[in-house]
Amino acid sequence: MKKIIVKEEHCIGCGLCEVYCTVQHSKSKDIIKAYNRENPRPTSRVKLEVHKPVSFAIQCRHCEDAPCVTACLSGAMKKDEETGLVTHDPEKCIGCWTCIMVCPYGAIKRDSSGKVVSKCDLCAELEVPACVANCPNGALVYKEVKK
User: Fold this and answer.
1) Residues 13 and 48 in one domain
2) Residues spanned by the domain of 22
3) Is 4 exposed, middle or buried (0-12, 13-18, 19+ CB in 10 A)?
4) What is the 3-state secondary structure (H, E, C) of 24-90?
5) What is the predicted pLDDT for the residue at 146?
6) pTM for this structure?
7) Which of 33, 64, 44 is nearest to 118 (CA)?
8) Which of 22, 85, 120, 140 is disulfide-compatible with 135, CB 3.0–4.6 A?
9) Please, are residues 109 and 68 in contact by the beta-carbon 8 Å criterion?
10) What is the pLDDT of residue 135?
Protein backbone atom coordinates (compact mmCIF):
# COMPACT_ATOMS: atom_id res chain seq x y z
CA MET A 1 0.00 0.00 0.00
CA LYS A 2 1.13 3.53 -0.73
CA LYS A 3 1.24 5.95 2.20
CA ILE A 4 2.25 9.53 2.84
CA ILE A 5 5.54 9.69 4.69
CA VAL A 6 6.31 12.89 6.59
CA LYS A 7 9.87 14.18 6.67
CA GLU A 8 9.62 16.82 9.39
CA GLU A 9 13.25 17.80 8.92
CA HIS A 10 12.28 19.16 5.48
CA CYS A 11 9.04 20.90 6.51
CA ILE A 12 9.22 24.69 6.50
CA GLY A 13 5.71 25.19 7.89
CA CYS A 14 4.42 27.01 4.80
CA GLY A 15 0.92 25.48 5.01
CA LEU A 16 0.63 24.73 1.29
CA CYS A 17 -0.35 21.15 2.16
CA GLU A 18 -3.46 22.49 3.91
CA VAL A 19 -4.25 24.94 1.11
CA TYR A 20 -4.02 22.40 -1.71
CA CYS A 21 -5.92 19.79 0.29
CA THR A 22 -8.72 22.32 0.83
CA VAL A 23 -8.80 23.18 -2.88
CA GLN A 24 -8.75 19.51 -3.94
CA HIS A 25 -11.75 18.78 -1.71
CA SER A 26 -13.71 21.84 -2.83
CA LYS A 27 -16.56 21.81 -5.32
CA SER A 28 -14.90 24.32 -7.65
CA LYS A 29 -11.26 23.10 -7.48
CA ASP A 30 -10.39 26.82 -7.67
CA ILE A 31 -8.35 28.38 -4.85
CA ILE A 32 -10.20 31.75 -4.79
CA LYS A 33 -13.66 30.21 -5.02
CA ALA A 34 -12.84 27.50 -2.47
CA TYR A 35 -11.69 30.01 0.14
CA ASN A 36 -13.98 32.96 -0.56
CA ARG A 37 -17.18 31.75 -2.18
CA GLU A 38 -18.02 28.17 -1.25
CA ASN A 39 -20.43 27.62 1.59
CA PRO A 40 -19.79 25.58 3.59
CA ARG A 41 -16.09 26.17 3.12
CA PRO A 42 -14.23 22.94 2.28
CA THR A 43 -12.12 21.45 5.04
CA SER A 44 -8.46 20.55 4.75
CA ARG A 45 -7.85 16.96 5.71
CA VAL A 46 -4.26 17.85 6.64
CA LYS A 47 -3.34 19.72 9.80
CA LEU A 48 -0.04 21.55 9.97
CA GLU A 49 1.62 21.51 13.39
CA VAL A 50 4.15 24.27 13.87
CA HIS A 51 6.35 24.33 16.96
CA LYS A 52 9.47 26.13 15.78
CA PRO A 53 11.99 24.92 14.87
CA VAL A 54 9.94 21.79 14.09
CA SER A 55 6.86 21.66 11.88
CA PHE A 56 5.07 18.77 10.19
CA ALA A 57 1.82 17.73 8.54
CA ILE A 58 -0.65 15.41 10.24
CA GLN A 59 -3.06 13.34 8.20
CA CYS A 60 -4.67 9.92 8.42
CA ARG A 61 -2.06 7.16 8.52
CA HIS A 62 -4.54 4.54 7.24
CA CYS A 63 -3.60 2.28 10.15
CA GLU A 64 -3.34 -1.44 9.60
CA ASP A 65 -5.57 -2.04 12.64
CA ALA A 66 -7.51 1.24 12.42
CA PRO A 67 -9.12 2.11 15.78
CA CYS A 68 -11.47 4.57 14.07
CA VAL A 69 -13.04 1.74 12.07
CA THR A 70 -13.52 -0.40 15.17
CA ALA A 71 -14.96 2.51 17.17
CA CYS A 72 -17.32 3.82 14.48
CA LEU A 73 -20.88 3.31 15.72
CA SER A 74 -22.59 3.75 12.36
CA GLY A 75 -20.23 1.93 10.00
CA ALA A 76 -19.23 5.18 8.30
CA MET A 77 -15.54 4.30 8.67
CA LYS A 78 -14.40 1.35 6.60
CA LYS A 79 -11.07 -0.21 5.73
CA ASP A 80 -10.51 -1.61 2.27
CA GLU A 81 -8.47 -4.73 2.97
CA GLU A 82 -7.15 -4.84 -0.59
CA THR A 83 -5.83 -1.25 -0.78
CA GLY A 84 -5.41 -0.53 2.94
CA LEU A 85 -7.31 2.73 2.53
CA VAL A 86 -9.49 3.83 5.47
CA THR A 87 -12.52 5.63 4.05
CA HIS A 88 -15.33 7.66 5.53
CA ASP A 89 -18.92 7.78 4.26
CA PRO A 90 -20.45 11.13 5.33
CA GLU A 91 -23.94 9.80 4.52
CA LYS A 92 -23.60 7.19 7.28
CA CYS A 93 -21.79 9.43 9.79
CA ILE A 94 -23.89 10.37 12.82
CA GLY A 95 -21.43 12.90 14.23
CA CYS A 96 -20.73 11.02 17.46
CA TRP A 97 -17.00 11.93 17.27
CA THR A 98 -15.92 8.51 18.57
CA CYS A 99 -13.41 8.18 15.72
CA ILE A 100 -11.91 11.55 16.65
CA MET A 101 -11.41 10.41 20.24
CA VAL A 102 -9.69 7.12 19.35
CA CYS A 103 -7.42 8.30 16.52
CA PRO A 104 -3.86 8.03 17.90
CA TYR A 105 -2.63 10.71 15.49
CA GLY A 106 -5.32 13.35 15.92
CA ALA A 107 -5.88 13.11 12.18
CA ILE A 108 -9.68 13.07 12.12
CA LYS A 109 -11.64 16.26 12.67
CA ARG A 110 -15.10 17.72 12.26
CA ASP A 111 -15.76 19.09 8.81
CA SER A 112 -16.79 22.72 8.27
CA SER A 113 -20.49 21.87 8.69
CA GLY A 114 -19.75 20.54 12.18
CA LYS A 115 -22.05 17.59 11.54
CA VAL A 116 -19.71 14.90 10.22
CA VAL A 117 -16.00 14.12 10.30
CA SER A 118 -13.36 14.77 7.71
CA LYS A 119 -10.20 12.74 7.11
CA CYS A 120 -7.53 12.15 4.51
CA ASP A 121 -8.64 10.02 1.59
CA LEU A 122 -5.21 10.08 -0.12
CA CYS A 123 -6.91 12.00 -2.96
CA ALA A 124 -8.03 8.68 -4.45
CA GLU A 125 -8.90 10.35 -7.76
CA LEU A 126 -5.33 11.65 -8.21
CA GLU A 127 -2.13 9.75 -8.93
CA VAL A 128 -0.37 11.65 -6.12
CA PRO A 129 -2.23 13.32 -3.22
CA ALA A 130 -2.55 17.11 -3.58
CA CYS A 131 -0.59 17.80 -0.38
CA VAL A 132 2.37 15.74 -1.61
CA ALA A 133 2.29 17.12 -5.16
CA ASN A 134 2.38 20.71 -3.88
CA CYS A 135 4.88 20.43 -1.04
CA PRO A 136 7.71 22.76 -2.13
CA ASN A 137 10.39 21.19 0.05
CA GLY A 138 9.66 17.48 -0.35
CA ALA A 139 8.54 17.12 3.27
CA LEU A 140 5.70 14.86 2.15
CA VAL A 141 6.47 11.75 0.12
CA TYR A 142 3.95 9.28 -1.33
CA LYS A 143 5.50 5.85 -1.55
CA GLU A 144 4.89 2.13 -1.24
CA VAL A 145 5.37 0.80 2.27
CA LYS A 146 5.53 -2.81 3.42
CA LYS A 147 3.13 -4.05 6.06
Assistant:
1) yes
2) 1-59+121-147
3) buried
4) HCCCCCCHHHHHHCCCCCCCCCCEEEEECCEEEEECCCCCCCCHHHHHCCCCCEEECCCCCCEEECC
5) 80
6) 0.90
7) 44
8) 140
9) no
10) 97
